[in-house]
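Figure 6 in text form: structure in, sequence out.
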């Protein structure tokens, strides 16, 4: 049986996460940067900023908007087997808590991400768990993908498993992202 103190903590955490989605919704009127929005998503899903990737469709490829270190690392062809490309092509969300065991393109995992913005070491850790969601405005074309991961040397060190509730929150966030100006491929990146 759970103690009343634990129940209250769980209720507070759920409330904080739902208010985070509301905060994200409010940001649509402020024309926020991809960095600011990604930081909010990291907060909502309780991951590090370097565990959030935001990509948009540009000229038949996917280009990273966040993290900034991956902007210069290249693009992902839509025809590739990369998770982000499959997410966009199939318009289907993915949740995997055993991602490290799945054969995947790991080129971008080797790029050193800055620790200066995150008070964490910038060690290149492999992705152990991942959620990938298409960014689609209501009844619109797919504009990109949002990916949230948990990184670590192994699955047990990468944190808790993602849940279906986490995936639902990321899908809610993706719908809001579809209304953000920076997702428009006609708007140049900073």
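Output sequence:
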């Amino acid at each position: 049986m759970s103690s009343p103190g634990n129940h209250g903590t769980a209720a507070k955490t759920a409330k904080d996460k739902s208010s985070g989605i509301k905060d994200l919704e409010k940001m649509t009127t402020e024309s926020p940067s991809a960095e600011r929005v990604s930081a909010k998503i990291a907060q909502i899903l309780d991951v590090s900023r370097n565990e959030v990737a935001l990509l948009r469709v540009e000229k038949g490829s996917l280009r990273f908007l966040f993290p900034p270190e991956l902007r210069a690392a290249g693009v992902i062809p839509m025809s590739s087997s990369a998770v982000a490309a499959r997410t966009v092509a199939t318009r289907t969300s993915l949740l995997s808590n055993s991602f490290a065991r799945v054969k995947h393109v790991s080129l971008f995992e080797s790029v050193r991400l800055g620790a200066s913005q995150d008070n964490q070491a910038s060690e290149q850790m492999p992705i152990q768990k991942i959620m990938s969601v298409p960014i689609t405005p209501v009844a619109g074309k797919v504009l990109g993908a949002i990916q949230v991961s948990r990184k670590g040397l192994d699955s047990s060190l990468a944190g808790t498993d993602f849940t279906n509730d986490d995936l639902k929150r990321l899908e809610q966030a993706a719908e809001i992202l579809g209304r953000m100006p920076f997702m428009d491929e006609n708007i140049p990146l900073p």
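Caption detail: Confidence is low (pLDDT under 50) at residues 1-12, 107-111, 115-122.
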